[in-house]
Amino acid sequence: MDHQIDVMITEEAVDAKICELADQISKDYAGKELHLVIILKGSVFFACELAKRITIPVTMDFMSVSSYGDGMVSAGHITVKKELDEDIEGKDVLIVEDIVDSGNTLFHLKHLLEGRNPASLKIITLLDKPDRRVADVNTDYCGFVIPDEFVVGYGLDYAQKYRNLPYIGVVKS
Ligand code: IMP
Ligand code: MG
Fold first, then answer.
1. Which of 12, 27, 62, 88 has a Cα-to-Cα distance from 52 of 20 to 30 A?
2. Which residue(s) pair with 158 in the sheet?
3. Whose CA is closest to atom 9 on ligand 1?
4. Ligand 1 within 6 A of CB of 137
5. What's the pLDDT tens digit per position in 9-35?
6. Does 101 contact ligand 1 (Cβ within 6 A)?
7. In the prediction, which pLDDT does 76 show?
8. Tens of pLDDT along 68-108?
9. Nearest ligand 1 atom to alpha carbon 97
10. Does residue 27 sit within a domain?
């Protein structure tokens, strides 16, 4: 069954925001190399567009994690479903997320990666839904703060569909 999807953030607005974020990151990390840790699967579209616009040297690795719980009553920890290929020790690491909702995933992931002794560890998210936050997690770079609505597109899915939409949309049932 297809759903009606209303546009929340246009493709042009997302692209413009990603350019801004990439400029800021290129300045903040000037003279360094940046290692992107991209959280599968939702962050892939965002991460690629971001990486293309960053002007300092970038390396990329991928990780898949799942947090238990439904976000409301949430999870004590995360399970790593796909581990990073490379060590992050001594690297300037930027975790790339699609959306921060309860914050549980990032809270536990940040803790996990901090234990591996990166030179620095920051977080970028395309979207932030602060209304639903239960875990104490701060992002260093954020594209858009959005209201508490279920969004799809630009990598985000509803039951694995709609990741390929080039804009951020709201699913209307
Ligand atoms: P958190 O641990 O609750 O912050 O979960 C964040 C993860 O939940 C994201 O990486 C998404 O995979 C998923 N998620 C949260 N809100 C949405 C949404 O509105 N649309 C699609 N996926 C979402
Ligand atoms: Mg995700």
1. 88
2. 161
3. 99
4. no
5. 999 999 999 999 999 999 999 999 999
6. yes
7. 54
8. 644 434 445 788 999 999 999 999 999 999 999 999 999 99
9. 10
10. no
Q: Helix, strand, or coil here: 49?
A: helix
Burial 66-87 (b: 16+ CB within 10 A, else e): ebeeebeebbeebeeeeebeee
Taking CA atoms only, the protein residue closest to ligand 1 atom 10 is 99
Q: What's the full length of the chain, in residues? A: 173
User: What range does the domain containing 72 cover?
Assistant: 34-151
Domains identified in the chain, total number: 1
Whether 19 is covered by a domain: the verdict is no
Could you give the residue numbers annotated as active site?
101
Give domain status of residue 109, yes or no. yes
CATH number at residue 104: 3.40.50.2020
Q: Is the pTM of this model over 0.90?
A: yes
Ligand 1 contacts CB of residue 156 (under 6 A): yes
Is 12 a domain residue? Answer: no
Residues with CB under 5 A from ligand 2 (ion): 42
